[in-house]
């Protein structure tokens, strides 16, 4: 895994966005379209803002997905990940298509339909983060499966994951955080051609340390990123564990 460390969150976001933009431009020169998956989290905000401002990207040939969504929130709830991405990405550049996870009224059916959409063609790029418990997407340690036969599934969120949503100021209390979500599975994420993993902040330092140094295990699901052929990890000074 390639690891890049920057002094500030802003520098990290700008550098990651530059590499994502370069990869997009290169892919669009050699193929008709690109398919991408994006994480929705405050940790991604600086990178996405810089990516939206990047010049010379033909967004009209890019199809966007996101990697997880809560079950049980109102369709117009501001905490929904699709809503966050609408504000920070989907509504800011003219994608060819945006496929949002819509759990209502049948979460299992929604997961199956989203799996079918993802399977229509290869996923070129994934822009993701790492949770404080080491999760990637909503694959928390209790539910992560490196050999998962499913591409999209319903999961129960562990308490550490739910508390992170409060610490990120996305919810007022842990009781407000839904207990279940729809998520892309680990194998589905790893089948993408290239992964751009953006992880700022002191709260993520232990998860980053485990990702880089612990045995590859679902105890820290992000450790599996070390087995991907083209994964780059972008850190700031606060998240870098070896500083």
What would you say this structure looks like, in words?
There is one protein chain. The chain has 243 residues and is α/β, with parallel strands linked by helices. The mean pLDDT is 97. The chain has a single domain (2-153, 181-236), classed as 3-Layer(aba) Sandwich (Rossmann fold), CATH 3.40.50.1360. The chain is globular and about 45 Å long. The chain has 7 helices and 10 strands. α1 (9-30) crosses α2 (45-52).
What is the secondary structure topology, with strand pairs?
Layout: E1 2-6, H1 9-30, E2 34-38, H2 45-52, E3 62-66, E4 68-71, H3 81-90, E5 97-99, H4 107-118, E6 125-128, E7 152-156, H5 159-167, E8 180-184, H6 186-190, E9 194-199, H7 205-213, E10 231-236
Parallel strand pairs: 1-10, 2-3, 2-6, 3-5, 6-9, 9-10
Antiparallel strand pairs: 4-8, 7-8
Helix pairs in contact: 1-2
Quickly describe the structure.
With 243 residues, this protein is an alpha/beta fold. The chain has 7 helices and 10 strands.
Task: Write a concise keyword list for the protein shown above.
20% strand, 243 residues, 10 strands, 7 helices, 31% helix, Rossmann fold, alpha/beta, three-stranded antiparallel sheet, Glc/Gal-6P_isomerase, Glucosamine6P_isomerase
- Average pLDDT value? 97
From the spread of the alpha carbons, the general shape counts as globular
Structural class of the helix and strand makeup?
alpha/beta
Radius of gyration (Å): 17 Å
According to CATH, the fold-level topology is: Rossmann fold
> Widest sheet: strand order?
1-10-9-6-2-3-5
CATH architecture: 3-Layer(aba) Sandwich
How many individual helices? Answer: 7
Beta percentage is 15-25%
Give the domain tally.
1
Percent helix among the residues? 25-40%
Q: Topology as H/E string?
A: EHEHEEHEHEEHEHEHE
| Biggest beta-sheet profile | 7 strands, parallel
Low-confidence stretches: none
Number of E-state strands: 10
CATH class: Alpha Beta
| Distance separating the two termini | 18 Å
């Amino acid at each position: 895994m390639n690891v890049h460390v920057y002094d500030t969150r802003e520098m990290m976001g700008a550098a990651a966005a530059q590499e994502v933009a370069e990869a997009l431009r290169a892919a669009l020169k050699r193929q008709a379209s690109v398919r991408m998956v994006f994480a929705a989290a405050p940790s991604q905000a600086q990178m996405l803002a810089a990516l939206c401002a990047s010049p010379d990207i033909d967004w009209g040939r890019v199809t966007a997905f996101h990697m997880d969504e809560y079950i049980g929130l109102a369709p117009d709830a501001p905490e929904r990940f699709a809503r966050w991405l609408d504000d920070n990405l989907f509504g800011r550049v003219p994608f060819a298509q945006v496929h949002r996870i819509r759990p209502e009224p049948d979460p299992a059916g929604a997961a199956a339909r989203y799996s079918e959409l993802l399977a229509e063609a290869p996923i070129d790029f994934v822009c993701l983060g790492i949770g404080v418990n080491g999760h990637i997407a909503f694959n928390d340690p209790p539910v992560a499966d490196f050999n998962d036969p499913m591409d999209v599934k319903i999961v129960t969120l562990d308490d550490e994951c739910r508390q992170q949503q409060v610490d990120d100021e996305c919810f007022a209390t842990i009781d407000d955080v839904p207990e279940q979500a729809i998520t892309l599975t680990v194998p589905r994420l790893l089948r993408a051609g290239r992964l751009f993993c953006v992880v700022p902040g002191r709260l993520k330092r232990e998860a980053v340390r485990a990702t880089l140094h612990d045995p590859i295990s679902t105890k820290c699901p992000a450790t599996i990123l070390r087995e991907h052929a083209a994964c780059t990890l972008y850190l700031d000074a606060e998240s870098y564990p070896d500083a």
